[in-house]
Amino acid sequence: MFRRHAQELARGGMVGGRSKSVAKRKRDNMPARNRKNFLSTKEGAGMTEAGVKAYRRKNPGSKLQTAVTEDNPTGKRAKRRRSFCARSAGQMKKFPKAAKNPNSRLRAARRRWKC
Questions:
Q1: Mean pLDDT, each 10-residue run in order, the chain (115 residues)
Q2: How many domains does the chain have?
Q3: Do 17 and 69 reside in the same domain of the chain?
Q4: What is the spatial distance between Cα 45 and Cα 53, in angstroms, rounded to a whole number?
Q5: 48 in Cβ contact with 38 (< 8 Å)
Q6: Can you point out the beta strands (E) in 1-115?
Q7: Range of the domain at 43
Q8: Are residues 15 and 70 both part of a single domain?
Q9: Neighbours of 22 (CB within 10 A)
Q10: What's the Rg (C-alpha) of the chain?
Q11: Which of 37, 40, 56 is CA-nearest to residue 48?
């Protein structure tokens, strides 16, 4: 059994339903998970401005943006908030357990975005 497994891997074939390329995954280009880059659940569960900047440095050409937290956004920022609130409302329906828990990341993010 082991010999067949080794031979398959040497040929670059599939073993056990997984290809050889899946075994060697590239590391994510995400910034470190620390207080500087990410907010806790209590604080709103998302990336900070410093975290977004760190991500964009590691991923040139990225369009990642911070949350729209101002009271009356205008233009594109208002559309982004409306879109996020609509998507997260769908998640509230799909995950009723998270929707009922006021301390869930979903509810915290919706509070932060003022949905």
A1: 66 59 60 77 83 91 91 94 96 95 92 92
A2: 2
A3: no
A4: 17
A5: yes
A6: 14-15, 18-19
A7: 31-112
A8: no
A9: 9
A10: 20
A11: 37
